[in-house]
Amino acid sequence: MNVDSYNEVIFGKDTCKEIARVLKEGKNIIIGFTDEEYEHIDIFFSYMNTKKTGYIQRGINEFDLFVGIVPNKFYGFRADTEKSKGYIGEKLNISYEPMLTKLTDLINGICRELKE
Questions:
Q1: How would you classify the pairing of strands 29-34 and 73-77?
Q2: Which of 38, 72, 73, 84 counts the highest number of beta carbons within 10 A?
Q3: What is the pLDDT of residues 52-93, one digit of tens each?
Q4: Structure confidence at residue 52 (pLDDT)
């Protein structure tokens, strides 16, 4: 896992690999993530271990990569496609930089690792 001098998780190849490894084991993971400039957010990831019950709106299904930002942002992203910064920003209600760019890189990096 890539971390800064405060032991906060930062974007990097090792971060994406480690999160994907844990998710492939069927576990969830929560990280304290920083954009290395201004913001810190706590992010919860879950993949392929969710049971769906009832009709779920917004195109989300139980096989998505679930990303939750504490305390109130959550969405399920297909893991087989690259997502644009605008799409991720819209779904997780984040518009400030550089967090949006770093978060987009992180989610897309994890998705690439999950496909391998």
A1: unpaired
A2: 73
A3: 898 888 888 899 999 999 999 999 999 999 999 999 999 999
A4: 86
**What's residue 108's pLDDT?**
98
Residue 94: name the closest of 83, 109, 78 by CA: 83
Cβ pair 39, 63 in contact under 8 A: no
37: its two tokens: 């400039």
Does pTM surpass 0.85?
A: yes
Q: For residues 71 and 101, what is the distance between their CA atoms, to the nearest angstrom? A: 20
With beta carbons less than 8 A apart as the criterion, state whether 6 and 79 touch: no
| Closest among 114, 106, 108, 112 to 34, alpha carbons compared | 106
DSSP-derived letter for residue 12 is: S
Strand partners, 67: 45, 75
| Chain segment 11-61, per-residue pLDDT in tens | 999 999 999 999 999 999 999 999 999 999 999 999 999 888 988 888 888
